[in-house]
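User: Putative small subunit of phenylpropionate dioxygenase, Corynebacterium glyciniphilum AJ 3170:
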Amino acid sequence: MSPFLSDTRVQRAIELIWYEAALLDRKDYPAWEQQFTEDGYYIVPVDPETEDFENSLNMIYDDARMRHLRVERLIQGFSPSAVAAATTVRTVSRFEVLELSDSEIVVRSAQIITAHKRNETRNLGAELTHRIRLTPDGGTDLIIQKVARLIDSQDAIGAAGFLI
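Assistant: Predicted structure for Putative small subunit of phenylpropionate dioxygenase:
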C-alpha cells in the first residue's frame, strides 16, 4: 500500500472530487460548471470498457458548450429532467491514483448516488475517473475530464433528473 494520501497533490484532487459531489447534491450547477477547464469534458459512456469516447456511443459527451446548455436546462426548469428534479446524496470513496505529476493527476474512485424523486428512492453506482489540472501555486485546480462509468450502463436507463 502506497502512502499516496500524504501527497498534497492527491489530497487536493480528492477534495476537489468531494467538492464536486457536494455541488451536485446541492444542485449548484453553475458552480459545478466552473470546476471544469474550458477544454474539459464530462462523459458518461455506454460501453464500460471504452477509452475512445469521441468514437463511441455515450449517454453524455459534453464539452464546455454542451455542459453550459445542460446546466441552463437544469436551472431554467423547462426540461423534464429539471421538473421535480431528484434529491441526491453522493458517497465517493475508494480512491486510486492512476497518474500523477506536478501539473496533472488522474484519480479513479467509486460513487454511490442515492436519489429520491416522486416517492421513489433508487441507488446508482458508478466508477469515476477524474483527470485534474493542478495549479503550481496550489490555487484553483480544475477538472480536465470526468468519466462516469455507470455499473448498469448497458441496461435500459430512464431519465435520471440529475447529473452523475
